[in-house]
Each structure stands twice: as structure tokens, then as C-alpha cells.
Design brief:
The complex is a heterodimer of chains A (228) and B (237).
Chain A: E1 3-4, E2 11-12, E3 17-20, E4 25-26, E5 30-33, E6 36-39, E7 43-48, E8 51-56, E9 68-76, E10 80-84, E11 90-94, H1 95-98, E12 118-126, E13 132-135, E14 143-144, E15 148-151, H2 157-161, H3 166-175, E16 178-181, E17 186-190, H4 193-208, H5 215-227
Helix pairs in contact in A: 3-5, 4-5
Chain B: E1 18-22, E2 30-36, E3 39-50, E4 63-70, H1 86-100, E5 111-121, H2 126-140, E6 149-157, E7 160-163, H3 167-170, E8 177-185, E9 191-194, E10 197-198, H4 202-232
Parallel strand pairs in B: 4-5
Antiparallel strand pairs in B: 1-2, 2-3, 3-5, 6-7, 6-8, 8-9, 8-10
Helix pairs in contact in B: 1-2, 2-4
Classes of the chains: A alpha+beta (228), B alpha+beta (237).
Chain lengths: 228, 237
């Protein structure tokens, strides 16, 4: 019978032993060394059934299929657009995935999305060589006009969204801002300038205090006091 | 027989006082600080990010780039000429090789991880301090690695085998001196750096390496603690 060496939600460092025995399986951020399962990343250890995995606490965004991200057009090619999505690799949006409108053959693609413009899009595929395909066909995927973009650590994104989007909904209603959170750590805000500033400040606060339990209540109090 | 007691009254197998901290540079993806005696190293890690020029890209795995730099005022008097030197390029290379053994960059094809090692104050053992800090900074940056790397110098001063030589010991004049910087992987206990300056007998070297391993264990505990502290008490700042 295998045994667990660490406690659930304990911070582990690369090279730390997590579990012993063949009935545990190495999950994300871990590897097997003989009988043992060893951490290969810094993060929180977590046991999910038989699998032991690591929830990363730091690091850059790694693109995954199905993620909704915010990106900036960096190039317009013959059949689509190239986007920068806050990671080491750029991504492609092809013409047929871009819009439900009919695009005339040989049309100037910059009239749809021009260089420097921001959009929300979903990742449809990531290859082993990290070629990333995007689509903009889906609910809520659109060009982002106006507003401002702020950057947060991608590992803090789940905290900013909250359980079932509770946190971000609260910020939206309290600050009267339109907010879109990308999985890649980019957040778009739009509203009155002073509201935007408040929303950005709140998000930065969540990012720096993400480890505190009962954060939602704390942020609620913070917002109430600021909007008074 | 004249070198009986160490200049700073340490035991033969004792390192200088150490200090480690993770997450010291906000805008970097990962960073760390390591101090041993009067030698201080700051390391910032950026990436994985796009690599240019493109001919340097490797489609099979990410590339690691290390830049070792002693600050102009860091030495013990003489100004260190800024910029690359033969020495700094060599140390950049050995640091890279010492770290590359544990890093897993297969997930980041065609990209680069940049490691900047900066030394504001030096008193021997800079490459070791740099490796210790770099290993922590890479972990802090969330880059997958099999194990941590700890490094220390061992060697011989006159007829004594010692750990972690200070500059005064390296420059000891009344007898032969050997300075052997080593880096040890935390789990497998393999050596990923082994250089030597001076002369030492085979038996003495073996004895020194074992003492070095013991010191590295201590350093590894310190590195672990620094990384855990950063995340247990919350985030940077």
C-alpha cells in the first residue's frame, strides 16, 4: 500500500517527495522516480483520487485548448491575423474562424481587425510545437473597443473570477464597469475613468492577497467603502 | 602545518553565514537572492519567451541563456570592467550547464529562458552563490525541473581540507591552495559542476567532495525554506 508523504495544499519545491508506492499516479507538475512521486514544479500539492498533482503558484501562461483569452493583433496575413496572447508563442486566427460575416475574396483584412486592436477569442488547438489556433465564433467573443487592458499573474486568474464568477460579478456591479477576464492574465475593463481605476485597483488587491481565505467578503467591504 | 585555524574562526566543514530569499524582483517572472558570507547574488529569470535571432531557436526544446555579471564596484578595490570578459563568459557557460541538467524545457520549443546573475558584492565563491540563487529563481518562475541545485566551493588550504573558501583563503600564500567549486543536485546527489584551480591529491579531493555534499544539503534546506516562505505567507511584497 502506498503512502502520502505530503499534506493536501502544502507548498512543495521541485525535487520534494510527494507520495510513495505504485498505487499513486503522477499528475501535472510531477514525475515518477522509482517508487516515489516527485514534484517538478513549485506549487501546492493536491491529491485527486489516485493522482497527485501540483497547482502552480507562479509561471507564465501556458496555452490550453478551450481557454478564452484576450489578444492583440500583431500582424495581418493573407488568410488571417496573428495575435499576441501574453505567452512565449503567438497565435493564429484564420479568416473563416473570425466572423460570421462573409469576407470577400481578396478583401482587406485590416477593416475587420487592424494591428494593435484587442479581441477576446477561444483557443481551438495547440500543437506540440505550440502553434496556436484561435476562433472568434462563440458567445461573448468580440473585438474590444475602448476601455483599458491590465495584466495580472495567470495563476491568479481563478481567484479573480471567483467561484462561479462571483468575484468578477461583484466588481462589475459595484464599479459599473464592463469586465472581461482572459485565462492568459489579461483583463479588459471599460467604464467611467474613475470606475476603471477603482476596478483596476480592486483586481490588483485581489492579486496581491489571493492567499487569504474569506477574500470575497474583504473585497466586498473594500468596494463598499470606496464607492460610498 | 601553519594553517591551523581558519581566518574567520569557522570549523573546517562550516560554510559562511548564509541568507536566501525568493521573489525579490517584482517585474521578473522569477527571482531570488542568495548571500554567503560577503558574496551576494541576485538572479532574475525571464521567460519562457520568444527567442530572436531565429537561428538560435531549437524546435525540440527551449533554450537556456545565462548571463553572469559582476558589478563594477563589487570586488575588493579594483573596479571590475563592465561587460563581457573571458572569465564571465566561462562562468555563464558552467552555470548554464550546471542548471540544464535538472531543467525540463521540452514544453517550450523555440523559446528561451533568460537567467541574469548579478553580483553586487563579491568575496570568492560567486559562481556557487549564482547557481544557488538561479536554481531558486527558476523554481520561482514556475519552470519544470527535476530537482534543485545547490553549490559550494571546497578545497584545500595548506594541508587542511575546507568547505566554502573565502577570498583570504583562496589567496593564502604560505602553502598550496586548491579551490574546487561544485554543484550538487538535491535528489540524485550528482555533481553538475566540478572545476578546479590549484592542486589537490585524489584522496583529499574525495574527502572534500563529501564535505561539499554535506554543505550542499544544508544549502538546499535553506533554498527550500526561502521558496516555501514566499508562498506560505502569501505573495511577494
Amino acid at each position: 500500500m502506498g503512502k502520502l508523504i505530503i499534506k493536501e495544499k502544502e507548498v512543495v519545491v521541485p525535487g520534494d517527495d510527494l507520495a510513495e508506492g505504485m498505487d499513486y499516479l503522477p499528475g501535472n507538475g510531477t514525475y515518477r522516480d522509482g517508487e516515489k512521486i516527485v514534484a517538478s514544479k513549485l506549487g501546492l500539492a493536491s491529491v485527486d483520487g489516485r493522482a497527485v498533482k501540483i497547482i502552480a503558484l507562479s509561471g507564465q501562461y501556458s496555452p490550453k485548448r478551450g481557454d478564452t483569452v484576450i489578444g492583440k493583433v500583431i500582424d495581418v496575413t493573407i488568410n488571417g491575423w496573428r495575435f499576441e496572447i501574453n505567452c512565449a508563442y503567438s497565435s493564429m486566427l484564420s479568416m473563416k474562424d473570425a466572423t460570421s460575416q462573409f469576407i470577400q475574396r481578396g478583401a482587406d483584412l485590416t477593416q475587420y481587425y487592424n494591428i494593435g486592436e484587442w479581441v477576446t477569442a477561444t483557443i481551438t488547438n495547440v500543437t506540440s510545437q505550440k502553434l496556436i489556433d484561435l476562433t472568434m465564433k462563440g458567445p461573448g467573443l468580440r473585438k474590444l473597443v475602448g476601455g483599458r487592458i491590465i495584466k495580472v499573474s495567470p495563476s491568479k486568474v481563478p481567484r479573480i473570477i471567483g467561484k462561479m464568477g462571483s468575484m468578477v460579478t461583484m466588481i462589475k456591479t459595484q464599479t459599473n464597469c464592463r469586465i472581461t477576464v482572459g485565462q492568459n492574465g489579461l483583463i479588459w475593463l471599460q467604464g467611467e475613468p474613475k470606475d476603471e481605476i477603482l476596478a483596476a485597483e480592486t483586481i490588483k488587491k485581489i492579486e496581491s492577497e489571493s492567499h487569504i481565505s474569506g477574500l470575497t467578503e474583504k473585497i466586498e467591504a473594500f468596494l463598499k467603502q470606496k464607492t460610498k | 602545518m601553519s594553517y591551523k585555524k581558519r581566518f574567520d574562526k569557522r570549523e573546517l566543514d562550516q560554510t559562511r553565514p548564509m541568507e536566501a530569499k525568493a521573489g525579490v524582483i517584482d517585474r521578473a517572472d522569477g527571482s531570488a537572492y542568495f548571500k554567503i558570507g560577503n558574496t551576494e547574488a541576485y538572479v532574475a529569470v525571464y521567460g519562457p519567451r520568444n527567442l530572436h535571432p531565429r537561428f538560435l531557436q531549437d524546435p525540440e526544446k527551449g533554450v537556456l541563456r545565462v548571463n553572469y555579471n559582476m558589478m563594477p564596484f563589487s570586488g575588493s578595490g579594483e573596479r571590475v570592467r563592465p561587460g563581457l570578459s573571458r572569465r564571465s563568459r566561462e562562468i555563464s557557460m558552467v552555470t548554464k550547464n550546471a542548471l540544464l541538467l535538472t531543467l525540463d524545457l521540452k514544453e517550450f520549443p523555440n523559446s528561451v529562458v533568460d537567467v541574469f546573475v548579478e553580483l553586487p558584492q563579491t568575496d570568492a565563491g560567486t559562481r556557487c552563490a549564482g547557481i544557488c540563487a538561479a536554481s531558486m529563481a527558476l523554481a520561482d518562475a514556475g519552470i519544470p525541473m527535476k530537482e534543485m541545485v545547490s553549490a559550494v566551493s571546497v578545497g584545500r588550504v595548506d594541508d587542511k581540507i575546507v568547505v566554502d573558501l573565502g577570498y583570504a583563503e583562496e589567496a593564502y600564500e604560505d602553502g598550496p591552495v586548491a579551490d574546487v567549486p561544485i554543484a550538487v543536485l538535491s535528489r540524485s546527489q550528482k555533481f553538475s559542476l566540478l572545476q578546479m584551480d590549484g592542486e589537490i591529491s585524489k584522496d583529499d579531493l574525495k574527502k572534500g567532495l563529501e564535505m561539499g555534499r554535506k554543505a550542499c544539503k544544508e544549502i538546499h534546506e535553506l533554498q527550500r525554506k526561502a521558496l516555501k516562505d514566499k508562498y506560505s505567507t502569501g505573495d511577494k511584497k
